């Protein structure tokens, strides 16, 4: 069963950043969907917790050069 988590993402300054973060997220194994908003610096990710966890999602965003933290 998929879970949904919200992430605060730092360092996105233009719409292309949003597209690249979304692309990174959507290619991760276990990620079913991702929506990232520039105005709020928030991302929502739907994922399969048997494949990937929130810490690994944060790490993938940081590996791409952005800052990330999950909310709660
Ligand atoms: Mo826009 Mo983001 O030129 O790393 S792609 S700032």
Q: Give the tally of structural domains.
A: 1
| Shape category | globular
Instruction: Outline the biggest β-sheet.
Output: 4 strands, antiparallel
Radius of gyration: 11 Å
In total, the number of strands is 4
What is the fold named in CATH at topology level? Answer: Alpha-Beta Plaits
- Let me know the average pLDDT: 97
Q: In percent terms, what proportion of residues is strand?
A: 25-35%
CATH architecture: 2-Layer Sandwich
Write a concise synopsis of the structure shown:
This protein has 72 residues and is of the alpha+beta class. The chain is built from 2 helices and 4 strands; from the N terminus they run E-H-E-E-H-E.
Characterization of this structure:
The protein is α+β, with helices and mostly antiparallel strands. It has one domain (about 5-70): Alpha-Beta Plaits. It is about 30% helix and about 35% strand. It is built from two helices and four strands, in the order βαββαβ. The longest helix is centred in the N-terminal third of the chain and has 13 residues, at about 15-25. The relative contact order is 0.32. The mean pLDDT is about 95. The structure holds dioxo(di-mu-sulfide)dimolybdenum. Dioxo(di-mu-sulfide)dimolybdenum binds near residues 13, 14, 16 and 17.
């Amino acid at each position: 069963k998929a879970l949904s988590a919200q992430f605060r993402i730092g360092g996105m300054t233009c719409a292309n950043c949003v597209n690249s973060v979304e692309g990174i997220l959507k290619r991760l194994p276990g990620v079913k969907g991702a929506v990232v908003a520039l105005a709020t610096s928030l991302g929502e990710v739907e994922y399969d917790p048997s494949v990937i966890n929130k810490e690994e999602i944060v790490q993938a965003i940081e590996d791409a050069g952005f800052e990330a933290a999950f909310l709660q």
